[in-house]
Write a structure and sequence with these properties.
mainly alpha
Length: about 120
């Protein structure tokens, strides 16, 4: 058997895990939180851009509100009604946005068909 001892590289950190380069976080090269100030352009997975998902969410909160009202908790039911109201306003905004984008596309198509105008 070999009597020589193996030499290991010394650890940089005693805790045993690799650490991130702290200077990159401080310098701002980390893009994880940039461009998200004020929740502009913040979309989770697109679920709030799909009218069918919004309608399903509204129905879910309305059902939760009815269930909590029947169990005798008017405060929780009011909370659920407010959630349903929020998502119904969000659905209305989305429908308005979709309607405007469709009319804008129609106007552009009409202008390209009739270049006289």
């Amino acid at each position: 058997m070999n009597n020589q001892r193996r030499r290991f590289r010394p650890r940089q950190h005693k805790s045993g895990f690799r650490r991130r380069n702290v200077s990159s976080i401080k310098s701002g090269s980390n893009n994880y939180l940039q461009g998200n100030s004020g929740n502009n352009n913040f979309h989770r997975n697109g679920s709030l851009n799909n009218p069918f998902n919004l309608e399903k969410t509204i129905q879910k909160y309305l059902q939760l509100a009815k269930d909590s009202l029947s169990s005798g908790d008017p405060i929780l039911s009011e909370n659920y009604f407010q959630h349903a109201d929020h998502f119904s306003r969000r659905l209305q905004e989305l429908n308005t946005k979709i309607k405007e984008s469709v009319t804008d596309k129609d106007i552009k198509e009409i202008k390209t068909e009739n270049p006289k105008d």
